[in-house]
Design goal:
By secondary structure, the chain is mostly helical. It has 5 helices and no strands. It has one domain. It has helices at residues 2-6, 13-17, 28-45, 52-59, 62-71. Helix 3 crosses helix 5 (62-71) and helix 4 (52-59) runs antiparallel to helix 5 (62-71). The radius of gyration is 19 Å and the shape is flat.
Length: 91
């Protein structure tokens, strides 16, 4: 429920004026971080177990919690499938 209540707050005034129901995909990482933080805060407020690390970062404040969440997010990095010779090398 916390994520569903927080999602509309992630829509910018400009996007809302354009009639968008959801935030833009380019903002997905920031929005996902915010939603995760809201879910953790709601779980803690309801007395649910949130885990030691989450509790420590929650107690340190919103910024610390968001940095902690971001540090645990998957970051896709892909190796190139095409051969690209390095500059300055002799073939």
């Amino acid at each position: 429920m916390a994520a569903a209540e927080a999602l509309p707050r992630a829509i910018s005034d400009e996007d809302a004026a354009a009639g968008l129901a959801y935030p833009k995909l380019k903002d997905i990482r920031a929005i996902s971080t915010m939603l995760a933080a809201e879910v953790i805060k709601a779980a803690a407020a309801e007395g649910l177990k949130i885990g030691k690390e989450a509790a420590v970062h929650l107690a340190a404040g919103d910024e610390a919690l968001m940095r902690w969440i971001q540090s645990r997010m998957f970051v896709p990095t892909y190796a190139s499938l095409a051969y690209k010779p390095q500059r300055g090398t002799v073939e």
